[in-house]
Amino acid sequence: MKPSRVVVGLSGGVDSAVSAWLLKQQGHEVVGIFMKNWEDDDDSEYCSSRQDFLDAASVADVIGIEIEHVNFAAEYKDRVFAEFLREYQAGRTPNPDVLCNAEIKFKAFLDHAMRLGAEKIATGHYARVRQIPHADLLLPPSGSAFQLLKGLDPLKDQSYFLHRLNQAQLAMTLFPVGELPKTEVRRIAAEIGLPNAKKKDSTGICFIGERPFREFLNRYLSHQPGPIRDDRGRLLGEHVGLSFYTLGQRKGIGIGGIKDKGARRGGGDHEPWFVARKDLATNTLYVVQGHDHPWLLSRSLLADGVHWCAGRPPAEGACSAKTRYRQADEACRLGPPAAGHFRLDFDQPQWAVTPGQSAVLYDGEVCLGGGFIAQVDPPAAA
C-alpha cells in the first residue's frame, strides 16, 4: 500500500501502540487520536481514562507522532449507553462493545479522522480486511469489495465485535496487528521500548471496567424485586430485579441448593443453579440445576437489527456462527434472510443463547455480519 495519512486510535494499550509503530515503519504519515468516551466517574478506581491518555501520550512521544485528545462522551452516552440501558430494562443482555465500534470508533472517530485529512484509519483490533475484485456496481465505485476477516491469532480474534462494519468503513480501515499473534505484539513493544509494553489488557469498557456490575446498574435502572422459581414452579427465593441477571449466570443468584432427589433433569442435589429464563410479564426469574439442563439448551434463534458486511445477505444454507465472544464457530443453517431479521438452526444444541447478544455468521475466516438475538427456542417443557 502506498504511503498514506493514517489516523490511529491510540487507547493507551499495547495493541494500538504497536499498530501505530508498524504503520510509521511502513512509511505512513501517522497521527494518533485518544478517544475519551466516558465522564460520569472518570476519576474513580474503575475508570482509568486519565492514565490511559498519559500512556497513549507517552507512546506517541516514543514513536514520534502527534496525538490529539478528542471527547466523544456525549455521542457515546446518546448512541451507546442509552441503548445499553434500554436493552437491560427490557430484560435483554446487550454487548456495548459491538455498539461502540459501530457508533463511535468507526463512525464518530472515522468522521473526525476524515476532517483531519485521513486517507485511512487504524485501530489495534485483532482482525483483518481483504480487498477482492467485484463487478457489482452497487458496491463501491472502485469495483472492489472488502471482506472482514478473523485475526490470525485465534485466541485474540475480535471480528465478532466488528461485524457491523459496512463497505465504506472497511475500505477506510487498517488493522495492523491482525496478522500477528499477541505474543509477537508484546515482543515488538518491548523491543522498541514502548512504555506500556507490559500493560495489562483491558478487561471491559470504561464505564463498567472491573467494578461490581450490579452496583453500577443500580445507579441507572429502575428495578422491582420478584420471585425466583425453579423449573417445577417452586419458590426458591427473591431476586433483586430482572435486569441484574443474565441467562447462564451461575454466581450471585442468591439461593442455595434444595434437597429433592429426582426433582430436576439437570443433575443431582448439589448441582449448581443457573439462570434459565426471565419472565417480564410476571417479574419472575427462573433457575435450573445442572449445566446441561434442557432449559439452557437451544437449537435455533431469530435475530433482528441485521447487518451484512457485504451490503447484502449471504445465500441461505450451511454456515457457522457464534452467539457469544470466545465461542468456537458452531455449524448451523441460515434460513431465507428477510428484511431486518434471520433465523439460524444449529446442528448441535447451544448453551444459554441470550437475547440482546449478537449472533455473528462466518464462512471460514470471513465474517459475514450478524444481528441481535431476539428470540430463541422455547425451553423444553418442565
List keywords for this structure.
single chain, Rossmann fold, SH3 type barrels, Elongation Factor Tu (Ef-tu), domain 3, 3 domains, six-stranded antiparallel beta barrel, five-stranded parallel sheet, 7 helices, 17 strands, 29% strand, globular
Write the layout of secondary structure elements.
Blueprint: E1 5-9, H1 14-25, E2 29-36, H2 49-63, E3 66-71, H3 73-89, H4 96-115, E4 120-122, E5 127-133, E6 144-150, H5 167-172, E7 173-174, H6 182-191, H7 213-218, E8 226-229, E9 235-239, E10 273-279, E11 284-289, E12 297-308, E13 317-322, E14 330-334, E15 341-351, E16 358-363, E17 366-376
Parallel strand pairs: 1-2, 1-4, 2-3, 4-7, 8-11
Antiparallel strand pairs: 5-6, 6-17, 8-9, 10-11, 12-15, 12-17, 13-14, 13-16, 14-15, 16-17
Helix pairs in contact: 1-2, 1-6, 3-4
Description:
The protein has about 375 residues and is α/β, with parallel strands linked by helices. It has three domains: about 5-125 and about 175-190, 3-Layer(aba) Sandwich (Rossmann fold), CATH 3.40.50; about 225-290, Roll (SH3 type barrels), CATH 2.30.30; about 295-375, Elongation Factor Tu (Ef-tu), domain 3, CATH 2.40.30. About 25% of the residues lie in helices and about 30% in strands. It has a six-stranded antiparallel barrel with strand order 12-15-14-13-16-17. It is globular, with a radius of gyration of 22 Å.
